[in-house]
Amino acid sequence: MPSFYNPVIPIIVGPTAIGKTYLGIQLALKMEGEIISADSMQVYKYMNIGTAKPDLNEKNGITHHLIDFVSPEDRFTVADFQEMALKKIEDLLAQNTLPIIVGGTGLYIHSLLYDMDFTEQEIDVDLRSQLEKIYQNEGSHVLFQKLKKLDPEVALRIHPNNWKRIIRAIEVCSNTKEGIKDFSKDLKLRKNFSFKVYGLYQDRDLLYESINHRVDNMIQQGLEKEVEFLLNSGFNPNLPAMKGVGYKELISYLNGEYGYERAVELIKRNTRRFAKRQMTWFKRTPNVTWFQLHKSDPEEKKAEIVKISRHITNELEGMVDNEKQC
Predict the structure, then answer these.
(1) Pair 162, 268 in one domain
(2) Mind listing the pLDDT tens digit for each residue in 67-90?
(3) Helix (DSSP H) and strand (DSSP E) numbers for the chain
(4) Would you list the DSSP string of 110-153?
(5) For residues 11 and 113, is the Cβ–Cβ distance under 8 A?
(6) Residue 159 is part of which domain span?
């Protein structure tokens, strides 16, 4: 068991389908660490294929935390993640185990890197119900116009199609005079832990090829049956969890809104768009050490990632040695 001296905690980021999970597991194997997931969809139970949760074989014996523990009908916020992840980091360090953060949810990552206060008021259940009905009946654009009237500055920071954030912003703006905090301003690094962010990226065509390959695999693994199971289990298709990419498109297909091939096409398109948004976020994250992947073949890509994991391991172990000498 290695002895860590105030270890530098690695954070692995990048777009979906890039290979973050595999890199995190390789690091954990080399450094006897455990993984803390920073993925806002992998927290949900019963949603395995569409969220690309690693199975037992992929985990390779490495313990994963903060996956597969929240019911799709339950609300799980970035504040919940921040509290649980920071506590888990403390617990692992106390056990002389290296925490390795792996995920593509930008706000989750920033909630660890920066001293961000997500203290918030209680939900106004009646107001939320009204707003959700507006979304279901009239669409997100009507909600967005409502937000623009309440707080034009806040509206500039939210995509017009991000109905969940629009609803939350309206709730806050309607019940406080402060509005939604803009965490992009005056960010202060967290001082009680030392993090190092590593990012994976590929040229667009290679990444899109990886995304298309992943979606095809999800379909072959039974994503449609997973969606049917969720619906048959009574989970409302309008739940935020059920609006994830892969789930919402197949729900619409099962409802007869379009054909199967169109559903698969939309999953691929929307996943590509999601990956683009992820990269936009992480490119704004300072001090990321980026590694470019040049292969599209899954096995060749894994070989590249193994080399990267050796580089990161050597760097982290060097930081520990320097700390010991100080």
Answers:
(1) no
(2) 999 999 998 988 999 999 999 999
(3) 13, 6
(4) HHHHB------PPP-HHHHHHHHHHHHHH-HHHHHHHHHHH-HH
(5) yes
(6) 125-175
